[in-house]
Amino acid sequence: xxxxxxxxxxxxxxxxxxxxxxxxxxxxxxxxxxxxxxxxxxxxxxxxxxxxxxxxxxxxxxxxxxxxxxxxxxxxxxxxxxxxxxxxxxxxxxxxxxxxxxxxxxxxxxxxxxxxxxxxxxxxxxxxxxxxxxxxxxxxxxxxxxxxxxxxxxxxxxxxxxxxxxxxxxxxxxxxxxxxxxxxxxxxxxxxxxxxxxxxxxxxxxxxxxxxxxxxxxxxxxxxxxxxxxxxxxxxxxxxxxxxxxxxxxxxxxxxxxxxxxxxxxxxxxxxxxxxxxxxxxxxx
Length: 285
Fold this sequence. Notes:
It contains no helices and 24 strands.
C-alpha cells in the first residue's frame, strides 16, 4: 500500500531518506542534499528538484512532469529501473551508472557530462546540449535525439540511433557496435578508433571523418563538405553524391557519384586492398 506526499516544500539533508512506495505530487525538494537517497517504488508527479543529489541508489522510480533546476546537480546516480516522462533537466552531470533508464520528452539545456556508464537506456524525443554526452554507456536505443555538444557517445557500445540530429565534434569515438539511421551529423573527426560502425541514410559533414575505424559500413549516405575521409579504415561505403576527398583507406570498397581527390600513399597502405568507384568507374590514385 503506497503513501502519498502532496504539495510540500521539503528541506534539509535526506528529507525522505529510504522511502518505500511513495506517490509524491506537487512537491519542491529544496535546500538539502540527497532527499530520496536509497528509496524504492517512488512515483513523482509535477515536482521540482532544487538541490543536489536527489535520487541516488534508488530503484523503481517513475517521474512525470518534473523539473530539475540548475543546482540539482548530479541528480540521478546508481539508480535502476527509472522512467522520466516530460521533464526539463537544467542540472548537469545527471544519470551516472544507472541501469534500465528511459527518458521520453525530456529537455536538457545543460547536459554536460550526462548519461555516463549506464546500461540499458532508451531515449525518445530528447533535446540535450553539453559535451561528453553518453560516455561509456552501453545497450542504448535512441529515437529523435537533438544533441548539441562535442565528444558524444565516446566509448559507448551497442548503440542504435534513429531519426536524430547531432552537432558534435568527435562523436562516437572509441565506440563499438553502433548503427545510426536516418540522421544528420555535423562535426569534425567522426567515429575515430571505433569498431563495427554503421551509417544508413544519413547526411554527414565531417573534416577527417570516419578514420581509424575497423569495419565501417555506409549505405546511401550523403557526405557534405567532408574531406580526408576514411584514413586507415576498413570500409564498405555507398555514398549518394560527392566526396570532397578520400585518403588512405586500409581496405574495402568505396562508391560515390564523384570524388574530388583520392589520395593513396603506397608507403602507408596497400592500394590493392581497396576498390574505389566514381561515376560507376573504378578509379585509382
